[in-house]
Amino acid sequence: MLGFVPPLPQQPGRPPSSGHMIVCGDDALARRLAVELRFIYGERVTLLLPPGRDASGPQTPMTQRGRAAALFGRMSAAMNRAGHGNGATDGSGDTNAGVEAVRIMEAPEPSDDVLEEAGIDRAAALALVYDDDERNIRAALTARRFNPRLRLVIRLYNRKLGQHLEELLDQAAAVAMPGIDPALLDASTTVLSDADTAAPALAATALTGSSKVIQAEGLLLRAAERPPPGPGESADPGLCTLALLSSTTNDPAGAEGSDSSGDEAPQLLPDERAVAETTGRGTVVLEAISRADPARPATRMGGRGAPLSQVFSRRLRWSALGIALAALALVVASLLTTRDGLVHSTYLTLLDLLGMNDPSEDGTTARKVIQLLSGVAGLLLLPLLIAAVLEAFGTLRTASSLRRPPRGLSGHVVLLGLGKIGTRVLMRLRELDIPVVVVEEDPEARGIPLARSLHVPTVIGDVTQEGVLEAAKIYRARALLALTSIDTTNLEATLYARSVKPDLRVALRLYDDEFATAVYRTLRTAHPQALTRSRSVSHLAAPAFAGAMMGRQVLGAIPVERKVMLFAALEVAGHPQLEGRTVEQAFRAGAWRVLAIDATPPADRNPDLAAPPPFDPEGAPPPPSSGLVWDLHPGYVLRAQDRVVIAATRRGLAELLRRQRSAVPGR
């Protein structure tokens, strides 16, 4: 039975054959990834989970094994309904035919004995997606020692450490297997971050609710949602139509479509006929392709230096202005009552102010009065200077502390939570120069140093307590991003924010799909004119991790309601559905579409198309133009040496990879 997970004591000690995939993790991403590999790619999967309750969901009494089994059961039922109700895509077949159920193991650590029991020496790929970077690194080093040919996919939050680790593990594989194909070596180790994968989609949802950006060789692919055309109007297809939104998108009581929504679900990669015949549905189109700016550091809010208003108080500034006006009046009086020039009168007045001049015993009465008044002004100047010094020291002392939201701030994004996801989203928003106010309960949270260095206004407090969101100026915000790790906290903050500002744009992070659907429908009904989105980080990140385990580079994933569309780079060689066919013939509606061809010679190609061009603060000349050709003629014949960028559904990419495996001898 598909999706059935037998009890642990009945499972065999070793997998029955080689070539399986192992997923090790302790949170939702591990379970999602196992589902992706099992039900989308049709792979044999061994899932290694820690025993006991799920740490990511303390509000539920289910164990890790129980949550995984429930998820596999729901996915299996959905796949069976989709297969019997709608039929499979022509030629795709059953992804799960002949594949046994996911094998679940429980162990506190991926030790040597546990990995051997999981069959690490015969596995094709291993995903290490624990939330702890150190645990993933230790397990990766152990796995490479057991199986040099193993494809490793590692979840790391630290980007620099990930680059060094990838080079180290690739070098170890090259030493263990002399003469290995460079292409295979390049795919042998992949370091990914679920936060980096999900942050662009979450940030885009908060900004406009419609724009999604994917980066490829220094170029930006911008996908945008467009409303359904009115009577007598025709929809603008942009460069190409990527998806048709569900029929319930404009229904206040409707829900975002998912894989189990049937005919009401969004249609990914429709053909021109389907687009022309569909009415009343919005679209997602490829709107523009532009050159990406170099990877600049996130900018500070309020500039690099502190303005005068932040160094000295308003009372001190008014006092200084009064002293300056008094000194100017004394200089003018000296000019009018004496025959001295401007420079000499100013010089004498300053000496009198500072108490450095001799008494004017032989001077005129007017000169004596001016000297007395200058002395009085000088007495007032002394406490002013002392106050300025004290306030300057106070500003320096608090410069490293968190900023409070300024009084006149408006049009900003309120970000709840500065964990791994919130920190990456904050960095993304500041790279786009979007004003942000952060709300975080833990003063020692991961993203607090980043918020401090970027001078981002931060409110420390429990978002569920009264007055916290008001301190973040929620009533003047443009959007709310609720990204804490607790679903109920995100929901409570969203409901309270909507009570303060009913038209507030909201994007909240929710794990459970059924709960997210119910929340979405209720919020749409209560606030039909306001934009509401619910997103799961594991749902956004799992396709990229699964593609990496299959040896393919996934450039990015964009959410289309509760479905996911992937952008990937593929070598045409070994794909019979692409090789020798024209661009028009290679298009498979609902599965994949060729968007671009890399015209760069194979020896000079950039192995990582998703990498942004380096930022040179010295203003070096711009990088050379990209080798990707986007304006493709429909009659262009794809050759084996070509590398293409495709938009694909999860099933479409899985079908391409299955066909390639079947075309390779020995697989």
UniProtKB/TrEMBL annotation:
Bias-annotated ranges (Pro residues): 1-15, 610-625
Residues covered by region (Disordered): 1-20, 603-626
Keywords: Membrane, Transmembrane, Transmembrane helix
Keyword Lyase annotated: no
Pfam families on file: TrkA_N
InterPro entries (UniProt xref): NAD(P)-bd_dom_sf (IPR036291), RCK_N (IPR003148), Trk_Ktr_HKT_K-transport (IPR050721)
Gene3D superfamilies: NAD(P)-binding Rossmann-like Domain
TM region(s), chain numbering: 318-337, 369-394
Residue ranges annotated for the RCK N-terminal domain, each copy included: 18-177, 410-532
Coiled-coil zones: none
Superkingdom to which the source organism belongs: Bacteria
Matching PANTHER family: POTASSIUM CHANNEL PROTEIN 2-RELATED-RELATED, VOLTAGE-GATED POTASSIUM CHANNEL KCH
Protein known as: NAD-binding protein
